[in-house]
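Box 4.2: Ligand-aware structure prediction
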Amino acid sequence: MKILLIGASGTLGREVESTLRASGQDVIRIGRKSGDMLADFADPRGLASIYAKLKPFDAVAIAAGDVAFGPIAEITREQWCFSFDNKLLGQIAAVQQALPYISDRGSFTLIGGLFSEEPIPLGSAASTVNRALEGFVVAAAIELPRALRINLVSPTLLEESVPQFGHLAPGVIPVAAATAAQAYKRSILGAHTGQIYKVGASLRG
Ligand SMILES: NC(=O)c1ccc[n+]([C@@H]2O[C@H](COP(=O)([O-])OP(=O)(O)OC[C@H]3O[C@@H](n4cnc5c(N)ncnc54)[C@H](OP(=O)(O)O)[C@@H]3O)[C@@H](O)[C@H]2O)c1
């Protein structure tokens, strides 16, 4: 299977790449600064020219997307727009722009995160974007043509990110990025569509 992986050089993306390669898949790495192809998926021109060059392909998987963090009373309109343009609309555009090129029965795997259901102070944009992504995935799943599938991976805090972000989510039990990567494998190699894979126990019980 030929899989385009956006964000392959990141904490999560590295594990997704090695998990997919270990199961014999052909992974094309895409990022802004490093990878087999360079692209910024937050740019409205985004990935269209890359998709045209790489067609046909069987899957688009995303392990990238930023949001702004800030106090609810102070977070600016610019910070909201940054968050929507990047993690939310960047991923939605990555799906829309791939539609002319992706193979029948292909799949999309997007990335959300724990703040959709475990809000934290300063995280209103992250919670909003992650919930919006869940809405997009369940809606797109019933509308995509040609038996295309779409799922969302929603990991809790990654173990590898605890030194950087652990203080933002006190008490949350982290999960290894390699475990979150299994959800990508399940999404891409399996048959699910419209699924939100909530990876990691956290305090979800
Ligand atoms: N880390 C966690 O604990 C955690 C938990 C739950 C959810 N998540 C979510 O998982 C995703 C990845 O997190 P991470 O910690 O792995 O991030 P990361 O280590 O910062 O890696 C991000 C990757 O995405 C690429 N990238 C970033 N913006 C891009 C853009 N606009 N266009 C193309 N490529 C782009 C980066 O490479 P270039 O710099 O070369 O572009 C890099 O490869 C994020 O959406 C995050 O919210 C993370």
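In the box above, the bound molecule is NAP. The mean pLDDT is 96.
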